[in-house]
């Protein structure tokens, strides 16, 4: 990415999916692209249309899930986080 310009990877954090989805994605980024890869953890998820029919996706993130996602990013060694 350094040769071609700035890279930022945006990861939308979903409610109830930190361990099954967010962690593996962040581990892959840290392991394959390096700890200084810029990662934007996005907490703006909102249930739309049929997502409301699924209990785990029919709600917004809570504070604990947001904090857990940030902790996971630190645990896997990512050093260049943008969150919000």
Describe the fold and architecture.
The protein is of the alpha/beta class. The chain has one domain (8-83). Helix content is 35%, strand content 15%. It has two helices and three strands, in the order βαβαβ. The chain has helices at 18-33, 63-75; strands at residues 8-12, 38-42, 81-83. A three-stranded parallel β-sheet has the order 1-2-3, covered by helices on one side. β1, α1 (18-33) and β2 (38-42) form a beta-alpha-beta unit. α1 runs parallel beside α2 (63-75). It is elongated, with a radius of gyration of 14 Å. The model has no long low-confidence stretch (mean pLDDT 91).
How many extended strands? Answer: 3
How many separate domains make up the residues? 1
Mean residue pLDDT? 91
User: How many individual helices?
Assistant: 2
Shape, please? elongated
Structural class label = alpha/beta
Unreliable runs, pLDDT <50, ≥5 residues? none
Instruction: Give the proportion of residues in helices.
Output: 25-40%
Order of helices and strands: EHEHE
For the termini, the CA-CA separation is 23 Å
Record the strand order, biggest sheet. Answer: 1-2-3
- Tell me the Rg in angstroms: 14 Å
Query: What profile does the largest beta sheet have?
Result: 3 strands, parallel
Q: Estimate what percentage of residues fall within beta strands.
A: 15-25%
């Amino acid at each position: 990415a350094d040769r071609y310009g700035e890279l930022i990877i945006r990861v939308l954090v979903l409610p109830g999916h930190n361990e099954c989805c967010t962690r593996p994605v962040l581990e892959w980024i840290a392991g394959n692209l390096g700890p200084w890869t810029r990662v934007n953890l996005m907490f703006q998820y909102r249930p739309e249309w049929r997502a409301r029919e699924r209990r785990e996706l029919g709600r917004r993130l809570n504070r604990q899930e947001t904090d857990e996602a940030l902790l996971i990013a630190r645990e896997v060694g990512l050093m260049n986080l943008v969150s919000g």
